[in-house]
Every structure is written in structure tokens, then in C-alpha cells.
Write a structure and sequence with these properties.
Blueprint lengths: L5 H4 L30 H22 L2 E5 L7 H13 L5 E5 L11 H9 L15 H12 L5 H11 L3 H8 L17 H12 L3 H10 L1
Length: 215
């Protein structure tokens, strides 16, 4: 980062417990504290401050992008760090892009707190992504198979996948069953069923019933 300039890293006041996070970097203790005397809250605070300070210095040296996927899988400490970065880097040329699935976290999840806290920050924006439309599905199928799908096959793929790009990709690789007038009811590819199964396993019982009711 910032040209891999160790002198930049050495200007950041790292606490001692970050020594394992940044191997090979000369770390100086903050206020004489050591890992053995810090409370968990102090460790979290100093960690967030150190990471924020490092990224702030790097951003002032050269703009960059931070990409964080699957926030719905994050724990409280990780999401708190992201909130700290969003606040501390608001005036620095650093872009933070994060993704999450809104159906995969329940009320009370720390992600809800994060989203509420950063919503009012300058330059914050939320993009709601939906499935691909029929035109985009046709283009994706063409890119995968080398041929534009017939109207019937396009309709079947769209109905079976809801425009989910991963599902479309997997279904498009299946040979069309020309003996049937429609592929609706045909089992989805194993990779799709496995992916759906993982998501269903992560849902609580009440949400699982709701999700199945929507299917």
C-alpha cells in the first residue's frame, strides 16, 4: 500500500498487540501499554484506531478502494471496525464498497446497527441489487453457450432462476431437454441446490418456514 513504503507504516502509533498483524514492521507501543494490561475494550479501541490511522495515511498518499464482501457474516467487532473506518476516512480519498444479503441477517444482528449508524454519513449510498432481467439473462446465456437462447429456453431459464446470475450460469450449462415443452419442474443443477441448501441451513426455523413459503 502507498508504494509499500515502510516509513509510512512506522509513522502510525501501533499498539503492541498488533505486532502479529503487521509482521516485519517496527511497531511502537502506545502510551506504554502492553497486551497483558489491556482490557478487551481497550484492545478493540486501539486496534480500530491503528487500522484507521494506517489506512488514512495510505489514502492521503494515494487513493484506493476497500472491498468487503458478505457483511451479513460479520461479527460485532469486525462490523464496528468498518463503522470506524467509514467515519474516520470520510474526508480521505478512500472508497469503501461493501456487500451483504438483506435476507440473511435477522433483526438484532449487528449489521443492522452498522447500517443505521452510517446512513447519515456524507457520501454514503446504498444500492439495491435485483436479479437480471430477461435481456441480461439472454446475454449471459449467450456468453456462456456461444448462442442466443430461443424464446422458450430463455423464458424457462428466467422462470427457474429468477435472474440470479449464478443460477443462470449453472442452468445455462445444462443441455436443453428438447423432449419437454417446458423445463419448469426440472431439478436445478447440483451446484445451485447446494448453494440454496447452505443458505437455508443458516436460517432460523421461523425464517426457514417463511422462505419456503415464498419458494
Amino acid at each position: 500500500m502507498a508504494g509499500n513504503d515502510d516509513s509510512l507504516l512506522n509513522t502510525i502509533p501501533y499498539p503492541e498487540h498488533l505486532r502479529s498483524i503487521s509482521p516485519g514492521v517496527a511497531i511502537r507501543a502506545v502510551d506504554g501499554d502492553s497486551a497483558s494490561t489491556l482490557t478487551p475494550d481497550q484492545v478493540c479501541f486501539q486496534t480500530n484506531a491503528a487500522v484507521s490511522g494506517l489506512l488514512r495515511a495510505a489514502g492521503l498518499a494515494s487513493p484506493f478502494l476497500i472491498l468487503i464482501e458478505d457483511l451479513h457474516n460479520g461479527d460485532s467487532a469486525s462490523l464496528r471496525l468498518i463503522e470506524v473506518l467509514a467515519r474516520d476516512l470520510v474526508d480521505v480519498p478512500v472508497l469503501i464498497v461493501s456487500t451483504y444479503r438483506d435476507r440473511e441477517f435477522e433483526p438484532g444482528h449487528p449489521l443492522g446497527t452498522l447500517l443505521g449508524n452510517v446512513a447519515a454519513l456524507p457520501n454514503f449510498d446504498r444500492l439495491h441489487l435485483t436479479g437480471l432481467g430477461p435481456t441480461e439473462v439472454a446475454e449471459l446465456v449467450r456468453d456462456i453457450t456461444g448462442a442466443r437462447p430461443s424464446a422458450r429456453r430463455l423464458s424457462d431459464i428466467f422462470d427457474r432462476t429468477g435472474g440470479n446470475p449464478f443460477f443462470v450460469s449453472e442452468v445455462a450449462r445444462e443441455p436443453a431437454d428438447l423432449s419437454q415443452t417446458s423445463e419448469i419442474g426440472r431439478p436445478l443443477p447440483r451446484n445451485v441446490r447446494d448453494a440454496v441448501g447452505v443458505r437455508l441451513d443458516a436460517l432460523s426455523a421461523p425464517r426457514l418456514c417463511t422462505q419456503r413459503a415464498r419458494s
